[in-house]
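## tool: complex_structure
## caller: assistant
## args:
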Amino acid sequence: MMKITRNRILTLITLVVFAGFLAYSQATFNPYILRIMNLCAIFTIFAVTFNLVYGYTGQFSLGHAGFAAVGAYTAALLTMTPVQKELNFFLEPIVPVLANVQWPFLPAMLLGGVLAAVVGFLIGWPALRLRGDYLAIATLGFGEIIRVLFVNMQRVTNGSLGLKGIPEYTNVYWSWGLALVTIFVTKRLVDSSYGRALKAIRDDEVAAEALGVKLSYHKILAFTLSSFFVGIAGALLANLISTIDPKVFLFFLTYQVVGITVMGGMSSLTGSTVSACLYTVFLEALRPVESPFSIGPLRVPGVPGMRMVIFSALLLLVILFYRRGLFGQAEFSWDWFFEKTSALRARLGRTGKTAPAPSIESEEEERP
Amino acid sequence: MTLSLFFQHLANGISLGSLYALIAIGYTMVYGILRLINFAHGDIVMLGSYIAFYGVVMFFLPWWVSFPLAILLTGVVGIIIERTAYKPLREVPRINLFTSAVAVSFLLENLGLVIFGARPKGFHRPPVMDTVLYIGGAAVVSYTPIIILTALVLFGGLMFVVHRTKVGMAMRALSKDIETTGLMGVNTDQVITFSFALGSALAAAGGILWAIKFPQIQPLMGVMPGLKAFIAAVLGGIGDITGALIGGFLLGIAEIMLVAFMPNLAGYRDAFAYSILILLLLFRPTGIMGEMEPEKV
Amino acid sequence: MPTKKLFVPLLVIGLIASLVTACQPTPAAKETPAPAETAAAGEETTPEEVVIGVYEPLTGAFAAGGEFTMQGVNLAYKQKPKVLGVPIKLVVVDNRSDKAEAATAMARLINQEGAIAVVGSYGSSLSMAGGEVAEKAGIPVMGCSPTNPLVTQGKDYYFRACFIDPFQGRVMAKYAVEELGVKKVAIIQDVAQDYSVGLAAFFRKAFIELTGDASGIVSFTSYQTGDQDFTAQLGATLAAKPDAIFAPGYFAEAALLAKQARELGFKGPILGGDAYEAPELIEIGGDAVEGIIFSTHYHPDAELSPASKPFVEAFEAEYGERPSAFAALGYDAYMLTIDAIERANSFDPAAIRDAMAATKNFPGVTGTISMDENGDAVKTAVILTVENGKFKYLTTVSP
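## result:
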């Protein structure tokens, strides 16, 4: 009992400290760093949602980019001013319904998530009957169909011209706040009886069904919930870079998410978060590998494209040799933290006790 | 639409279809044996055309040397890929194999971007394939019948190997039941390697012919053909080689006809192909020639 | 495994370390005064070096254009590595032909590298993304070749060294109607490229205005970037019996399209825009693109200004090939930036911006350039054709 209260207090303290960190960064860090922090949060949401569907439920869905597009375009079209819309739709006027609406950020983003969830439901309902690699290709197809539709629906999305002048509402509070909400909701879900059903489906669908787990109900639940948050993340992205077009949502986006989640460890939310942040930061930090730069009269040529080669090679290596990824199925937990540092603390004489009996929350069983 | 225009479109559809078919038979064969949707198959197509290209441009080989050489070399690359990226994952859940294929695909594409450069290059079309013939009022360039013929010949060759040789028999046995076949004394590793080499070689042939029809190569050129070939394979019944051939032709013709009869929908061409795939997967996943495989518990 | 236990903490340390290092502002950033801080008078802090940023697509779909542009920029930098006596640090960042990357690249140049002005990008959609960031930060940007009007519209800090698509569409329509006597034209656009969609629309508008006949557009079809088979679109197009085809896409698809059009027996002229300009057009298109006509910014043979000839000579000496329009524009963009800094006689971004806006009759290698109120260059266009496997200059068109 005491442990749970202690854990809760610690989590609360961490959240407060984190909020303080966000406030500090928003005030002092330069826009470049803030941009990276926002991207970290957005990719965290992408990774966690993918993890929910694949890591926990065992459904390999490759439609992420499509749902992000739905969320992004919804939020964009709703938050842009009517003047901006008129400016953008210079080829063909926007559909009258959208021409004069302007919503504040939160409702627009929520609607983006809801629409993405609806699309997720419509796609999931037929598609989730397929297994494994077929599901992957089918969802990939759906994602691409969504994108092609957006390219051709000139009057609604402005087609390939894209949208420009989306108000930049996203800041670290929104992005990380929503990331934390996503993580929290997902964690609650997987820790509940629903979560056990999902894991059962992942481990052995036939057995799960034989045990009375309603397959489609649970799969669609996870899928729809995941799509909702992907839509939110898409909205955050649109209001961050303030201009979008269908090319932002090519399969490449989904691929990055897959890579991030696999490397972080399937079924580990901690892993997904850490991996997403690492990926975003390293991608920027590795820039010197690519760009040519001049030092006086000397020009040092870089090799453009090496970043993605490194990423692909890493992913391959992880799949081949280190399939668990960074965290495997382990999650960060205060108990684990205390257990790991107990030896250290004992040596420092803080607690005056020997190492407490381990009560780790992580699952260490091998996945079959 | 005039009759000669219709024939024009038909010729085009068959020509495009034979390309899809050629790539699809390699795809479906690998699936039949390994139960792997080789996501990287399209990129092997790309590799084949690049090797052929550099053979002509950098080593000044005549095309009738460079092309077969490229096919051979790509087969070797296929073996390397299989050994490094797929073999270690044979005992684990299949989804990892698929993820590995996705990773290989992206690795090949990005390596291509770095090594070959993103700018498209002009593929040299051998003069014999460049003359315009007039058949039934339709203008047909000589590569069209050559492509169709080559696809059929290679298909025939593959069928011969699969049905008339010992290796082929081993392949067929493997695709039915990999464990038992191993127990019967067949060296499964060797057979799998052989199938992969064959599949990659066919992909390379597809790539070279593709580059002849659309003489422009760039590192991402294999993505679409790969996906379309997969759709064709599913259409014909995944795992069935004859099905892949039929599926390829059907898909090619359907695609051209869609845009021909409804030019306003030309922008939706790829979406159309995906929709076919999804409908197939939902309502008739076994395709035209496939047989129902009961799921063993 | 002992290594596994170390792996995780190591990575976490790595994450923190990289965050910390990423947070360190580079020395150059400290030198750059924010616009508000600039000393109005009196203080004469001469920095040791100034940073001019360049963001271009060096990888991805637009890599070809980015590469060409960099040739021009690098040559210009070589010729003028200093401005107002201070050496320039040219920082080049790849935006990967990706919108989100373009915004990040611009942010990096401004916040991390401390650029006082930026040059770029090839590709209107990329320029729009970077433009949002630059506008907020108050750093002037000189675009090299983006032609979509939206890039500068409503922006005070974005300029471009090139003309815009409404002008270009008009140029081609005029040429088609007046020089070629085209009465019926078919348009085939790349629906996935904003450049193509825009140019097609402007051409259509101008064509109808010039002929007074809306039915002169006999067919309007689309394809997607990356498509290689246009026979279906061409079938519909040719059935309408046009005098000419206007296909304002990129060179890769255009070459194939031309080939297939010729194979189907079309003998009339094929027209396009500045995205045709790449050696691959001829490489891939071969005989089919002989006689193709397109508008672009520049040609080495067109002596558009006194600066043109020396530029061509220097370029050939440096690279062993003749410059393309994008290289020339890259060169001009850089030179225009330097010129603005010199006229402003200051490194303050706001002052540079004002000087850019005031550019009048600058002798660029792509012609005499003046900026209009939108920040677009008012200058001439050049019409080229392909003859005997080479780009040949036909004529110049003034606005």
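## assistant note: The CA atoms of residues 190 and 223 of chain C lie 5 Å apart. Confidence is low (pLDDT under 50) at residues 1-15, 17-44 of chain C. Handing back to user.
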